Write the C-alpha cells for this entry.
Amino acid sequence: MIWRDIESIRTEAPVVHNITNYVVMNTTANAILALGGSPVMAHAAEEVEEMTGLARALVINMGTLSAPWVTAMLKAGKAALGRKIPVVLDPVGSGATRFRTETARRLVQEIRPTVIRGNASEIRSLLHSGPGTKGVDSRHAPDEVLDEARALSRSAGCVVSVSGPVDVIVSGDAVTRIENGHPLMTKVTGMGCTASAVTGVFVAANSSPFQAAAHAMAVMGIVGEMAAERAQGPGSFQLHFLDVLYGLQATDIAGRLKMLVL
Amino acid sequence: MIWRDIESIRTEAPVVHNITNYVVMNTTANAILALGGSPVMAHAAEEVEEMTGLARALVINMGTLSAPWVTAMLKAGKAALGRKIPVVLDPVGSGATRFRTETARRLVQEIRPTVIRGNASEIRSLLHSGPGTKGVDSRHAPDEVLDEARALSRSAGCVVSVSGPVDVIVSGDAVTRIENGHPLMTKVTGMGCTASAVTGVFVAANSSPFQAAAHAMAVMGIVGEMAAERAQGPGSFQLHFLDVLYGLQATDIAGRLKMLVL
Amino acid sequence: MIWRDIESIRTEAPVVHNITNYVVMNTTANAILALGGSPVMAHAAEEVEEMTGLARALVINMGTLSAPWVTAMLKAGKAALGRKIPVVLDPVGSGATRFRTETARRLVQEIRPTVIRGNASEIRSLLHSGPGTKGVDSRHAPDEVLDEARALSRSAGCVVSVSGPVDVIVSGDAVTRIENGHPLMTKVTGMGCTASAVTGVFVAANSSPFQAAAHAMAVMGIVGEMAAERAQGPGSFQLHFLDVLYGLQATDIAGRLKMLVL
C-alpha cells in the first residue's frame, strides 16, 4: 500500500504548497522533488489563497515564525479548508515560547488541519500549558505522549503524527507505530520538517490521512536507515537521503518496514 | 568565446547583486562562487540602491515574492537602470497567481531588464492573460514559445532566455538554441534560479547580453550533463554540479557544446 | 583545552539562539548540530527575548539585514545582556552600505557583544568611516587590521575575532593567531557565518570568550583543511566539512593545530 502511494506520486507529481521556514525550504523542496511531487513555496498574503487552490495539499510549518507569516498561514489554511484540500501542520517549537504555543493552538482551531505532525513536546504543548520545550528538540519519549496524541486527535478531529525513536500515528482510537529510522537523522537540521513535507505529498496521493501519515513516516524511516548505512556523517547523510528517496524501490520497503498497526 | 568569458570571470570575480528567493539563496550563491563570481544577497529597501551600485550585475528573482521585496526589486532595478548595470529578471511562477503575473509585468515595464530568463509558461504569461502555470513548472515546450519569446523580446526590448529540454535565447530576430542539459536537473530545486544567477555573472563579464545569456545556458547544460554522469541521484547531483562548475575546463565546453546560432 | 570544550559541547548540547541570514541558516544549523550543539533559529520580535532566555549563547548575523530583523536583534541582544548570556556579533557587509555600517555600530553600542567576529573590512568599518567593502569580501589582510582590532576590542570592551588567511583573535592586549584553514573555504558561501555560529557554541561551553573565540577558529581551520583534502571542489567540500566536524577527534586537533598565543 505504501508502494501504491509512491507509484501514484511519481506518476501524478502532485503540487504541494508549502508555507514553511527559511532553514529547511531548500531541503524540503528537494525531498518533495526526490519523492516525485511538485513543491511550491509561497507565503505572500496577496497570493496564498490562490496558490493553495492550485495545490493538492498544503503544508504549514512554524519554524521561523513571524506575524506576517501567521497571517499567510491562516489565509492559506482557511482556503484549503474551504476547498477540502488536506493540510499538514508542523507546530515547530510550540511550547518553547508563548508566541509559538498560541499560534499553534490558533492554527489548530481555525484551520482544522488534517494531520498535525510534531515531536512529543510540540504535541503535548497543544494540550497543556506547561514548561517550555528545549528549542525544537523533544524531552518526552513518543510512547509517553500516546495519551496526549489520542486526546489531541479527538479534540482537534485530526490525525496526530508524533516523531521520535519510535513514530506514533494516531487517529482517534487507531494507532500505528513505526520503528524505522536512524539516530543520525537527529544530527541533520530539518528532518522533522522534511517528514512534514513528505506527509504533505502522501496526503495528496492517499485519501486516508491516517494511512498517508503512516506511509510518510515509514518512508522517512526506511530512507533514513538506508542513507545512514551509506553515510560517513551528517553531510554525506543528506546527499544519500535524497539519492535513496529518488531511487526507492518496492523491495526496499518490503525488506525493511517495521510498521505495527494497533 | 564562452571560455573567454569564464577566464574573465575567474580573473575579475565580478560582484553580482541578487534579490532572490529563500529557497535557492544558498544554492545560487554557491554556484556564483564556483563559477568565479562574487555574490551579494541584500534586499532591504534601505540599502538596495547602494548595493546595486557596488555590483556589475543585478539578478531579480521572484521565487518567494512578497510586497516588501517587490519594493526592493523596483528600487534596485531602477538604480541599475540609472547606472546602466545589466539586470537579469527571473519571473518565477508568473502566470500562477495574479500577484506574480502583475508583479512580473510591472518589473518588466519599470526596470526594463537586460535579460528575462524563465520557463515557457512564465515567458508566455508576460504576453498573454491565460491559464495559470503548474506552480513553477512549465507546460509548454520551448519551441512552441519561440514566437512568444520573439514578441516579448521586441516589446520589452531585451534578451529573452527560455529554458527547457532545449534552451532558446532570443534577441529580436536573432535566436540561439542550446541542446545541452540533463533530465535530472528538473529533480533539483532551483536549477532555473541557478541559471538566472549564472546569467547574471555572464552579463557582468560580456558586454553582449545576447551572447552572455547563451553562454550561461550552455555552461548550465554542460555542467549539468557532467554532474549527472557522476551522480547517483539528485543529492549527489548537487555536489557534483558545484565541483564540475568550479573545475570546468575549455575542453569540457569544446567537447560537449551543442549550440546552434540561427 | 580545545578538546575539553568539544567534549563539553558533545555532552551538554548547549542551545544556541541564532538570528542570522537566509543564505546560511541551513548551513550554520547543520554545523552547530555536527559540532554537538542545539541550534534554534527565531527572529520574531514577539518571541526573541523569550527564546534567548532559553539559550546559552546568542549569535547575531547581519547577512540579509532588514529593519524588522534589526528590531529583533536589538531586543534579543538586550535580553542576552540582561541575563549575562554571551553574544557573538557577525557584522556581515558592514562598510559596504550605510545601513549596514550604522546597524553594526548601533548593535555594538547597545548590545555590547561578547565577541565580534568578521573579516578585516568589517572590523575596520566599525572604527572608521571609509570606503565600502567589496560586498562581504575583505580587502585588507588580517595582519594589517591588528591595530584596528585592538582599538575595537578596547573601545567596545569585547573579544574581536578577525578571519582571513591567518585568523587573529584579540582581547585588549592579548592576541592569538591561527594559521589553519584552506583557500577552498572562500569558495563556499557562509563559511564566515559558520565560523560565527561555531564561535557561539564555544562561548556557550567555555567561560573565557577569548579562549572560546580562538578555539572556534582553530576548529574551523582544522576541519576546513581536512575537508579540503577529501574534496574535489566546493560541492564535496561542504559535505566533508560536516562529516569531519561531526567525527572530529582529539588527535586531529593535536596533529594539525597552528595556534600562536602572543
Remarks:
- The longest strand of chain A covers residues 15-19.
- Confidence is low (pLDDT under 50) at residues 130-137 of chain A.
- Chain A has eleven helices and nine strands.
